[in-house]
């Protein structure tokens, strides 16, 4: 069982945080007597510079040969530097998501009690919060702009005296069904509750979404479920977050709501994600694992970025793609131990805590893991 | 200057909260020696039952004759009860917004210090928060489903073995420009900062949006501005809300973000809105004023709803459509006085406060106003 892990560090703080996640994977090898084959390739801005494309066919092929991908972040070019037609760093992510069929993006959010002080929410509102977002990742407005996808036109065009821009929000029943089914299966292994989020009083795609949820729900009579409008959900996430168990929603709503919910932990730097598709590996599912935060170019190279999102993404990788649940749990406990001891990167600093850099945070997690 | 105000109470708690707002308008007449002509008509579910449509042509015509509309709320039918083609209560709102050209929806958010206890956010994060959302209200995904608008198709259709649903997100340069210009003008009269929110790394319509913002900004060199991605904004609203002054964004992003931001005040029941268009009135602009909360059918008829959103909407009406800025300010101060004295509807209850019903809250605001 010599699993192959492909590391794509990417742009900005991506290389710094994936370096710490890699150290943690090495510590897992040592502590649990495992061996991983680790490869690494360029994506994003460096790949555009070196290879003329945000992700090369070779890199893509090597990803296809691996059991899992650990991804850092890719940076977006400022609007001014974008030429229509020219390669953009995000395309690496879109291509990976689309071509590997990663349709379910899991984002667990469980603020550690020892970190309530770092959150902008009052502790009484945070208490008991433990939810997983299941964001649809392969369709919707995100793919309205790819000319390669027929029937999903998107462009800026001139019409007589005005200019207009169009994006298309398209969902098929099959696309909705597979992600909703994943959400119900995850809920069955948790507290047994699904909240499906849409805007069914406005969108046709949401009306179809509700219809599919109602149908899939009948296959899971033991799981309770509810429909919630996206605007209501945006309120409830900061008001009564502990009421949620599994939240399933379409691509762009998932993007917005998970970033909002990340604030429950105090910083988006804390959060991991797993993107899962259809290919099975020896130990589970082929997947792409990445911190929820972006490339944060303003703090890149300053040893300031929070590596916990990347480290917890590595834990998800161990669990979902390699079938190493015990090892994953050990990583998560090591992280909890370090934050409970009061070590914090600057994004989640609070009075009484000890501020450490990216590298020291990673080293402390490694130490905690090796000592368990 | 005998202004005509059209009241459309609508569904659920709409009639209860507009009744209190009306009492406040009557108190303004008394206190300041004004006379308003007040009319009232059915919209929403009752209109569908009585007149077969969510808003009748007669009602519409009467609205057109008035200086301003005070709107309660309309309820959405559960998905199961919707027949395609049948009238839906929200159509009243969409028709009013579209046909009167209400393109700018203003939602001021300024949590009262005396109510920090009711918010789920910590006081240190709330401190100094005072922002206005300017939500585009006449275009985008909301109008992708109206068959009456050519070129914006939206439907659920069967394609061979699958079913798909499409919504269209379309913006013209002119539609973006007018709302962005309104935002810059408002910012010029406030702290002089505009945050424009989009998803320009994914949407064509957002790329066009940014381009227009950059252009309009050049007409307002004294106003500082920034572009922010919608996911980032969803974070910052609960992390550093005091950093915002004027936030301008497209229709659906505005819907989600304003509901999220409403939690800064503890309850969506606290928030007013003004929808402004192009027609001038004697005292300002013709407009539609409504609380941000919806019809809340679960608490309708129980004297529990918070009337402050509706009362503050009446204040915005006085200011923007009737040119009665002093009167508007007096209403706002009366509300502040009552909450500072510790009176709260149940949605914003906190320990030490006195819980009152919809009617008592309204009566206390009237009393405070008459005693000023
Ligand atoms: C970088 C960006 C295109 C991406 C997205 O919107 O999906 C990011 O925000 C995310 O959530 O992974
Ligand atoms: C009732 C609904 C259609 C409406 C909207 O989404 O615009 C409401 O949420 C609002 O914000 O006014």
UniProtKB/TrEMBL annotation, chains A, B:
- UniProt xrefs under SMART domains: Iso_dh
Query: Which parts of the sequence belong to the Isopropylmalate dehydrogenase-like domain?
Result: 4-365
Task: Write the record's keywords in alphabetical order, separated by commas.
Answer: Amino-acid biosynthesis, Branched-chain amino acid biosynthesis, Cytoplasm, Leucine biosynthesis, Magnesium, Manganese, Metal-binding, NAD, Oxidoreductase
Compartment(s) = Cytoplasm
| Cofactor dependency | Mn(2+); Mg(2+)
Protein EC: 1.1.1.85
User: Does this entry carry the keyword Magnesium?
Assistant: yes
Keyword Chaperone (UniProt): no
PROSITE patterns from the xrefs? IDH_IMDH (PS00470)
Cofactor: binding details: Binds 1 Mg(2+) or Mn(2+) ion per subunit.
Q: What class of enzyme is it?
A: oxidoreductase
Q: Residues that bind Mg(2+), according to the entry?
A: 231, 255, 259
Q: Specify the superkingdom.
A: Bacteria
Reactions this protein catalyses: (2R,3S)-3-isopropylmalate + NAD(+) = 4-methyl-2-oxopentanoate + CO2 + NADH
A single GO molecular-function term is: 3-isopropylmalate dehydrogenase activity
InterPro entries in alphabetical order: IsoCit/isopropylmalate_DH_CS, IsoPropMal-DH-like_dom, Isopropylmalate_DH
The residues that the entry says bind substrate are 97, 107, 135, 231
Q: Where is the signal peptide?
A: none
Identify the residues that bind NAD(+): 294-306
Q: Which Gene3D superfamilies does the entry mention? A: Isopropylmalate Dehydrogenase (3.40.718.10)
Which chain positions carry the site (Important for catalysis)?
Answer: 142, 199
Pathway in which this enzyme or protein is active: Amino-acid biosynthesis; L-leucine biosynthesis; L-leucine from 3-methyl-2-oxobutanoate: step 3/4
Q: Which family does it belong to?
A: Belongs to the isocitrate and isopropylmalate dehydrogenases family. LeuB type 1 subfamily.
Subunit structure as annotated in this protein's UniProt entry: Homodimer.
Q: What does this protein do?
A: Catalyzes the oxidation of 3-carboxy-2-hydroxy-4-methylpentanoate (3-isopropylmalate) to 3-carboxy-4-methyl-2-oxopentanoate. The product decarboxylates to 4-methyl-2 oxopentanoate.
Its recorded name reads 3-isopropylmalate dehydrogenase
Organismal lineage: Bacteria, Bacillati, Actinomycetota, Actinomycetes, Kitasatosporales
């Amino acid at each position: 069982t010599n699993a192959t892990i492909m590391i794509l560090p990417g742009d900005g703080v991506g290389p710094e945080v994936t370096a710490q996640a890699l150290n943690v994977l090495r510590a897992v090898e040592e502590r649990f007597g495992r061996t991983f084959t680790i490869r690494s390739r360029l994506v994003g801005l460096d790949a555009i510079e070196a290879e003329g494309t945000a992700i090369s066919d070779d890199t893509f092929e090597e990803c296809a040969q691996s059991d899992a991908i650990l991804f850092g972040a890719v940076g977006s070019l400022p609007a001014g530097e974008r030429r229509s037609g020219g390669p953009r760093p995000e395309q690496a992510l879109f291509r990976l998501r689309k071509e590997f069929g990663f349709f379910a993006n899991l984002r667990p959010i469980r603020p550690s009690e020892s970190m309530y002080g770092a959150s902008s929410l009052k502790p009484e509102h945070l208490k008991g919060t433990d939810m997983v977002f299941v964001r649809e990742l392969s369709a919707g407005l995100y793919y309205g702009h790819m000319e390669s996808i027929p029937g999903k036109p998107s462009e800026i065009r001139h019409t007589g005296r005005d200019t207009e821009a169009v994006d298309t929000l398209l969902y098929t029943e099959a696309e909705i069904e597979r992600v909703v089914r994943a959400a119900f299966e995850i809920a069955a292994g948790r507290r047994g509750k699904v909240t499906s989020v849409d805007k069914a009083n406005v969108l046709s795609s949401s009306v179809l979404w509700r219809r599919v949820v109602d149908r899939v729900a009948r296959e899971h009579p033991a799981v309770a479920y509810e429909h919630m409008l996206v605007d209501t959900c945006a309120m409830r996430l900061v008001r009564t977050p502990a009421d949620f168990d599994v939240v399933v929603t379409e691509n762009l709503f998932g993007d917005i709501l998970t970033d909002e919910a990340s604030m429950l932990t105090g910083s988006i730097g804390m959060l991991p994600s797993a993107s899962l598709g259809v290919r099975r590996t020896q130990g589970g599912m082929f997947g792409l694992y990445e911190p929820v935060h972006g490339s944060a170019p303003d703090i890149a190279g300053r040893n300031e970025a929070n590596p916990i999102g990347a480290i917890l993404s590595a834990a998800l990788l161990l669990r979902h793609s390699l079938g190493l649940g015990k090892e994953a749990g050990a990583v998560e406990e090591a992280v909890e131990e370090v934050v409970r001891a009061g070590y914090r990167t600057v994004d989640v600093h609070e009075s009484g805590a000890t501020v450490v850099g990216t590298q020291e945070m990673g080293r402390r997690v490694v130490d905690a893991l090796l000592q368990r």
